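Action item from last week, closing it out:
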Amino acid sequence: MLSHKQIKFRDNFSSPFKQRLFYFKNLPMALISGIKLTRLDEEQSIAEVPYRWRNKNPFRSMYFAVLSMAAELSTGAPALLALKGTDADVVLIIVDLKAEFVKKAMTKITFVCEDYQLFHQAISQLKQVGDMAEVTATTVGRNIDGDEVARFEFTWSFKLRS
């Protein structure tokens, strides 16, 4: 069950204006590329990235870095949502990334991550200053036909400080 702070954080992403403001302040490249977080809850985090001119590479498919940004957002948003459930001072950083590109991305791509509970469990294990935990979150990107285009694994490290 989400806390009041988590619900407020989630609801801010439900507002297109507040989501764009967040991107402007924190993730300007997501704003430029048109990435949108369309769902964030305890079950799924869904990020979409449009196929358009500024996101394309010379081979007429979506640039891998744009796909990586959307994939990262789909795993980072539930990590942040889980952090909002604690008053502890916890820092997070990506310590590893694995990516598999299965098919050319030539339409809007939707990334789905279903690992919120892993983040929640990892953060709840942090008890003493200096404690660390890692979560490897998987997100799968699919085109508008439902075909898998890319699969990413981001390993997030959490550390409890002061």
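Closing note: The chain has one domain: 4-161.
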